[in-house]
Amino acid sequence: MVTIGFASDLHFDHHSGLLLRFVDKIKKVSPDVLVLAGDLVTGPGRIKAVLRPMTSLVSHVCFLPGNHELWLARHHRHVDSTMLYKEILPTQAHIAGAFYLGMEPFFIDRIAILGVTGWFEDYVSHQTPDRRMVRFPDTSTPMDVVHWMAELLDRQLAMAESYADEIVVVTHTLPFPKKMARFVDTETVPYLGSELLGEVILRYSKVVQVISGHMHIKYEGRVDRDSMIPWDINAFGYPEEVGDMDHAIQNAIRTITL
Ligand SMILES: [Fe+2]
After folding, report:
1. Which fold has domain 3-257?
2. What pTM does this model have?
3. Which tens digit of pLDDT belongs to each residue from 202-258?
4. Rounded distance from Cα 214 to ligand 1 centre (Å)
């Protein structure tokens, strides 16, 4: 049996003191694997600092970047978001003692945990800074990034299907955004993620769990034609969304056992 704890969208740079409280929560939950589904910090600069206290407590910390980790700072003239995703963030995670989700699966006890950040079908023009904060060379639309991410996901799933008995898929953006349409304006749905990732996921029979982030919500649903696969979102959110902090910390890590 493997206990997987998962959390996302902690946005540590918006909450003073949250890292210490989150680390304290990790001690109490003590999962075998901690999955972080993105948006821990903005940009790549602080990722080592937030992962290190976690990797000193949990044997396996799996970190997947969110869109915020792929944002470029002004001094990043010679770096682009693809380099952050494929080279810089994996190195930072590795130095901090974490496994980098996004490029290859993590295996434990015949279970594969794998994922991709995903991307948006379109930006919500008046709301999102993503349009100007990321740069993916060789792409001209956000949907091009979605296609790249879908290929990365497909490749990992094909590998995991051969070697694992059960597969947990982690995405930052939503693979089933239409399921959330009732919670947002119609124009925001393309900014939640893309159904293309969902289509890829549902092609693989060994997928037993999907975990996502990005949308600041607590959600427990089920997907596929027979509604058999659990799809969970356990996002923390920005300070103004959190409400009672003690209650939020209490629910900051959700667990599943496989
Ligand atoms: Fe996000």
Report:
1. Purple Acid Phosphatase; chain A, domain 2 (3.60.21)
2. 0.96
3. 999 999 999 999 999 999 999 997 889 999 999 999 999 999 999 999 999 999 999
4. 4
Distance 236 CA to ligand 1 centre (A): 11
Cα of 121 vs centre of ligand 1, distance in Å, is: 14
- What is the domain partition of the chain in residue ranges? 3-257
CA of 18 to the centre of ligand 1 (A): 18
The pLDDT, as a whole number, for residue 126 is 62
Ligand 1 center from residue 193 Cα (angstroms): 10
Residue 74: is its pLDDT beyond 80?
Answer: no
The three state secondary structure string of the chain is: CCEEEEEECCCHHHCCCHHHHHHHHHHHHCCCEEEECCCCCCCCCCHHHHHHHHHCCCCEEEECCCCHHHCCCCCCCCCCHHHHHHHHHHHHHHHCCCEECCCCCEEECCEEEEEECCCCCCCCCCCCCHHHHCCCCCCCCHHHHHHHHHHHHHHHHHHHHHHCCEEEEEECCECCHHHHHHHCCHHHHHHCECHHHHHHHCCCCCEEEEEECCCCCEEEEEECCCCCEEEEEEECCCHHHHCCHHHHHHCCCEEEEC
